[in-house]
Amino acid sequence: MTRSWSVAVRIWVAGGLLVGVLAYAGEAGLAIAEGLVLAALGLALSPLVFPRSLPAQEAQRRSAGDGRPIVYWRPGCRFCLRLRLRLGRRGREARWVNIWADPDGAAAVRAATGGDETVPTVVLDGVAVVNPDPAVVRSACLASGRS
Predict the structure, then answer these.
(1) Are residues 43 and 62 in the same domain?
(2) What pairing do the DSSP bridges indicate for beta strands 95-98 and 70-73?
(3) Are residues 14 and 58 in the same domain?
(4) Structurally, how many domains does the chain consist of?
(5) Domain range for residue 14?
(6) How far, in Å, CA of 59 to CA of 71, rounded?
(7) Residues 15-31: pLDDT tens digits?
(8) Distances in whole angstroms, Cα of residue 35 to Cα of each of 15, 19, 26, 38, 97
(9) Is residue 1 part of a domain?
(10) Within 13 Å and on the Cβ side, how many CA atoms surround 130?
């Protein structure tokens, strides 16, 4: 499954341009600070923060066997990032599906949300929940028996 880097790359390119302009203007300290902030933001919005995505059908098949939650997400989504960071290490126990990389995942989200692609959409015990409380998802990860 390919990973979508477009959001992170755009941030890094814009950051590089901004750093160059600031450095040229003699604002070296500000250039370094802005560069670090934009580099961190690009990293946070990159696919590296999220576990490797599965195809939707594979995630559904595996989840049916072990009861792990399925998290439908997309790069650049601040709500997906919030969920991922709040789950911490437990987040690796969920099945992650990037809807920008998997048309079946996008279709599953549209079916669950009434036609739009609102993420994160999490399937817990066969029930889709849009932008759930991270504590609920964490509990589902613990209940799946993979603690």
Answers:
(1) no
(2) parallel
(3) no
(4) 2
(5) 6-48
(6) 9
(7) 999 999 999 999 999 99
(8) 6, 6, 15, 5, 31
(9) no
(10) 12
